Structure formats: C-alpha cells, structure tokens
C-alpha cells in the first residue's frame, strides 16, 4: 500500500529532471535588479534578481564571472542569460548565469548612493530632527497622483480607520519629466493649509518610475517642510532618498495611512479607559475628602463650639482685670508724685525759686566776664596775632614778620625788628 508514496528527494529530482529537460528553460533571458550580492572568495557570485513583484536566486560560477566587464552591486539593473534548474538541497529553483550585462540603470544607483551620502553628511537624516507624527490629526494632506492605486488606498484606509479626519489631496506628477518640480510645488503649497500630517508618495514601480523621489530638490522640500511628513513610496522593499529624509517612512501608501491616523476602535477603547480612570480618581478623591470631613466634624471642639467662646471670654476678663490693675497703680503713682510736688517748699514759694535761679545766673555771668579776653584788654593788655594765629611766645615770631596788636579801642599793625 505504501508503494504509491515517494520521498521528497525523489520528488525534487523529478522536478529537476523536468526543468532540466525543458527547452524553454535551458536558455532564458531575463532582466531585473541585483540585490543581496555576495562575491565568494573562490570567485563565484551569489545574488538575487528582482523586479517589483518577484525575485529569483542566481549563481554565476567563477569560470563565467571572468567574462563580465563590470563589478556587480546591489541596485544595478542587469540583463542576464542563463539556465533554470533546481538546487536539490532546498528544493528551490534558481538561475545559473552564463552571461550578464548592465541594463543602463547602474548609473542611477551610483547617483542614488552619492546623493544619499551627501545628504546624510548634511544632517538631513538625523533622527533627532525628526518631527513627531500627531496621534489624532484633524487634517491629513496627500501629495501624490490624483488617480491610481496609491490615493485610493490612502483614502479608503483613512475612511475605514478614522473617518473624522479630513483628507486634502495635492495632485502631483509622480514619474517622468517635471515630476520633481511638481512634487516640490505641492509640498510647499500644503504648508499654506492647516494640516497636521502630510503623506508624500506613490505606488510601486521600477527604479526609473520612482526616481523623482531620489531627487535632491524633493529631499530638501521634505526636510524643510514645517508639517510632519510620512514618506510612502513603492513597496516595502523599495527605499528612496525621500524615505530617509521624511519624519517617518511607511512601507506602502496603505501603511502610510495606517501610520497617519489611529484606529477608531482603539481611540474609543482609549477614551473608555480614560473614563474609567477619571471615575476612579474622582471616587478616590471624594472618599479622601469625605474622610477628612468626618475627622473634622468628629473633633470635640466642633461638637461643643461654645467652648471656643468661653475660653476667649475668660481670656478677655483676665485682660480687663490686668488693665484695671495697671491703671490703678499708675494713677496712684502719679497722684503721689503730684502730692510731692504740690507739698514742696518751692512750689508753695515760687519767688524763692526765681531768686535762686537769678543768683545762679549772676554767678555764671561773673565767671564769664573774668575769663573774657576783653576784660584783660581793658586792664591795659593787648592780643598779638600773626595772621589768624594768636602769638603767645617770642619763639613764634621772627624778624620782619607782620603782626597785629589788638587793644581795647582798636588795632595796630607792626613789623618785628
């Protein structure tokens, strides 16, 4: 009964036999883009050839690689001649390349790498300068072709995920002559609108079709845009300069729409969580304040508020008594002082006090007259001055000094001989 079952090895060998004997697969001519290129130390080339939808593994043995006139690199477009066969170890089919030519796009890849390095040095790819994408945008702008799968996918995705968001289309050429200028113009135009997020991109295509998103002018327009920009160019495997400059890169236009707006279900769920959290916080706050109120209302002083008045009343009585006591003492002290003054001899005989003061005045005046230099002059003496200085010794004068003698009835100027 088991005779009808075969092993995987037998199946793989059968498929290999069929492919190896198919005249249409013994020599095929294909074109595509090189990726995952690896040059083995023994001289063999291992790589993948891809287009926008598919890929195939390829091997070119050292005996054949010596014939080609260029050095293969990732991103190169090539024309390949070879034979399709099956590699039995993994059951995968691959092409054994016998000849390979450049397809004329190799220069584009070189230009791509050169510009990428230039802009990276200028800081256009710096992650710290990337603007944050708003979580819930009111308006999303889209710079892309007005027709095609990209705009349809973006519109349908935003409508499905978050229909409250308004979408403004800025129609632009996204391939061919004039595409880069059109994209730059529409990006600058979008800055005049109140837009929260701007999606810039297009659907998949060849490297030539998407080359406008590798242009330096487009890169600077995205970098200088005041609106957060999501780049959505081609398929997930496609990378353009615009992807590196943009604030966020999406693998596809649909992915860009998903990154631009939230899922309405998630927003509703989040709002519900906020509602629960706010209710919990409010309840905890109310419970806390109720507990504080209960503690206050249970205080003894609030249950017997008259005690507050009684304590204050007692203090007030004490203050009044102390005030009366001090006022009485002060009154008695002043009264005693008054009795002392009114009972004194001088108070009863004020003329005696006047005579006493007059006698003391005459004594002081007599002393002043005795000490006055004018009295000395009246007795025949004089005052000698040199300038403003009073001379009291002969040592203070010398020959020819000008001096002044002050007498009782005038002044005499003299010269020392």
Keywords:
417 residues, alpha/beta, five-stranded mixed barrel, five-stranded parallel beta sheet, 14 helices
Indicate the radius of gyration in whole angstroms.
57 Å
Uncertain segments are: none
Q: Which H/E pattern describes the elements?
A: HEEEHEEHEHEHEHEHEHHHHHHHEEEE
Report mean pLDDT, rounded to a whole number.
87
Query: Between the first and last Cα atoms, what is the distance in angstroms?
Result: 170 Å
For the largest beta-sheet, the strand count, sense and barrel status come to: 5 strands, mixed, barrel
Beta-strand fraction estimate: 15-25%
**Helical proportion?**
40-55%
The main sheet orders its strands as: 1-2-3-5-4
Give the class from helix and strand content and strand pairing. Answer: alpha/beta
Q: How many helices?
A: 14
Question: Can you offer a commentary on this structure?
Answer:
- This protein is of the alpha/beta class.
- The chain is 45% helix and 21% strand.
- The chain has 14 helices and 14 strands.
- The protein has helices at residues 8-20, 62-65, 106-121, 149-161, 179-190, 216-224, 241-245, 253-260, 264-297, 300-303, 306-342, 345-348, 350-371, 373-378, and strands spanning 28-39, 45-50, 55-60, 77-87, 92-102, 139-144, 166-171, 197-202, 229-233, 248-249, 383-386, 389-390, 402-407, 410-415.
- The radius of gyration is 57 Å and the shape is elongated.
What secondary-structure arrangement, pairings included, does this model have?
Layout: H1 8-20, E1 28-39, E2 45-50, E3 55-60, H2 62-65, E4 77-87, E5 92-102, H3 106-121, E6 139-144, H4 149-161, E7 166-171, H5 179-190, E8 197-202, H6 216-224, E9 229-233, H7 241-245, E10 248-249, H8 253-260, H9 264-297, H10 300-303, H11 306-342, H12 345-348, H13 350-371, H14 373-378, E11 383-386, E12 389-390, E13 402-407, E14 410-415
Parallel strand pairs: 3-5, 6-7, 6-8, 8-9, 9-10
Antiparallel strand pairs: 1-2, 1-4, 2-3, 4-5, 11-12, 11-13, 13-14
Helix pairs in contact: 4-8, 5-6
């Amino acid at each position: 009964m088991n005779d009808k079952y075969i092993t995987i090895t037998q199946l793989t060998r059968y498929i290999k036999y069929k492919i190896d004997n198919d005249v249409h697969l013994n020599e095929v001519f294909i074109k595509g883009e090189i990726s995952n290129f690896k040059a083995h130390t023994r001289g063999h080339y291992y790589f993948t050839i891809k287009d926008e939808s598919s890929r195939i593994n390829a091997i070119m043995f050292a005996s054949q690689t010596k014939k080609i006139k260029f050095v293969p690199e990732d991103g190169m477009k090539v024309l390949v001649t070879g034979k399709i066969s099956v590699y039995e170890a993994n059951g995968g089919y691959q092409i054994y390349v016998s000849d390979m030519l450049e397809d004329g796009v190799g220069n584009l890849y070189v230009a791509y790498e050169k510009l990428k390095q230039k802009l990276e040095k200028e800081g256009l790819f710096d992650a710290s300068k990337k603007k944050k994408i708003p979580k819930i945008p009111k308006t999303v702008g889209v710079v892309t072709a007005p027709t095609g799968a990209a705009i349809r996918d973006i519109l349908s995705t935003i409508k499905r995920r978050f229909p409250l968001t308004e979408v403004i289309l800025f129609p632009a050429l996204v391939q061919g002559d004039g595409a880069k200028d059109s994209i730059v113009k529409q990006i600058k135009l979008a800055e005049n609108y109140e837009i929260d997020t701007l999606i810039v991109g297009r659907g998949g295509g060849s490297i030539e079709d998407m080359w406008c998103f590798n242009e330096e002018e487009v890169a600077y327009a995205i970098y200088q845009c005041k609106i957060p920009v999501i780049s959505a160019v081609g398929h997930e495997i496609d990378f353009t300069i615009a992807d590196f400059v943009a604030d966020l890169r999406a693998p596809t236009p649909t992915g860009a729409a998903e990154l631009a707006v939230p899922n309405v279900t998630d927003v509703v769920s989040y709002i519900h969580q906020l509602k629960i959290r706010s209710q919990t916080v409010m309840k905890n706050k109310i419970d806390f304040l109720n507990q504080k109120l209960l503690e206050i209302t249970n205080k003894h002083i609030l249950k017997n508020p008259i005690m507050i008045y009684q304590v204050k009343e007692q203090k007030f009585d004490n203050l009044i008594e102390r005030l009366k006591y001090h006022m009485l003492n002060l009154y008695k002290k002043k009264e005693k002082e008054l009795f002392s003054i009114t009972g004194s001899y001088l108070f009863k005989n004020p003329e005696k006090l006047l005579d006493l003061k007059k006698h003391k005045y005459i004594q002081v005046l007599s002393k002043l007259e005795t000490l006055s230099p004018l009295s000395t002059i009246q007795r025949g003496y004089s005052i000698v001055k040199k300038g403003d200085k009073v001379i009291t010794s002969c040592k203070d004068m010398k020959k020819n000094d000008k001096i002044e003698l002050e007498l009782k009835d005038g002044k005499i100027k003299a010269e020392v001989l």
